[in-house]
Design goal:
This protein is of the alpha/beta class. It has helices at about 85-100, 120-125, 145-155; strands at about 1-5, 25-30, 40, 50, 75-80, 85, 105-110, 115, 130-135, 160, 170-175, 185-190, 195. The strands form three sheets. The protein has a nine-stranded mixed beta sheet with strand order 1-13-11-5-7-9-10-4-12, covered by helices on one side. Helix 2 packs parallel to helix 3.
């Protein structure tokens, strides 16, 4: 079995433009006479590798603690793209994934310098995809991400943003991207991993 960490390290992670960077706060150190080392942190729930809940864009949407872990743990299909992913490209990705493994096709991870267009988001929503993951800090275009979020989150497609697929090849994996249980929050960081039987 091979386990691949696809998460960013939190304190050196990429952040969405305008967001504050995560901060480590040293609360206690053994060196200064405390019985243990103790770290605090200050960060946005959407820093680094994280999950978006519908509440991120909908006041009546599910919060992070209300999401079903079924969307975040299970078989997934990893692929790669560059630039805007169109409806045609997304349909081709889903068809290829379904031909390999129907269950994996419900969780799609896309690596590369890409973003999901509104039309591609509509394809994902209509196909009952559970989760879409990408390497950018936002699933939609960086300069106008709202429309894609609205489309996906209203259908409760979970967004896994800020993953890192450098050491991953295309194919089927077991994904575990369970977020921290930040009750009533719009999102949460996670330690996303892929597992593959060798």
């Amino acid at each position: 079995m091979k386990i691949i960490d696809i998460s960013q390290e939190v304190f050196s992670c990429s952040v969405f433009p305008g967001d504050e960077e995560p901060q480590r706060v040293i609360l206690d150190t053994i060196e200064d006479g405390s019985i243990c080392n103790l770290t605090g942190l200050k960060m946005c729930a959407h820093n680094g590798t994280h999950v978006d809940a519908p509440y991120h864009f909908y006041n009546d949407g599910k919060t992070i603690d209300e999401l079903s872990l079924d969307a975040l743990v299970g078989k997934c299909y990893v692929t790669f793209a560059q630039g805007p992913v169109t409806a045609e490209t997304m349909t081709a990705i889903l068809n290829k994934a379904k031909a390999i493994d129907e269950e994996a096709a419900r969780r799609i991870l896309i690596g590369g310098d890409m973003y999901v267009t509104l039309e591609a988001a509509q394809v994902l929503a209509s196909e009952n995809v559970l989760l879409i993951g990408n390497e950018s800090q936002t699933v939609g275009p960086l300069n106008a991400p709202a429309a894609v979020h609205y489309e996906l989150l209203k259908k409760e497609v979970v967004l896994l943003e800020g993953i890192r697929l450098n050491d991953v090849s295309e194919g089927v994996y077991l994904l575990n991207a369970a977020p921290l249980n930040l009750g009533a929050s719009d999102g949460a960081p996670c330690r996303a991993i892929l597992i593959r039987n060798q």
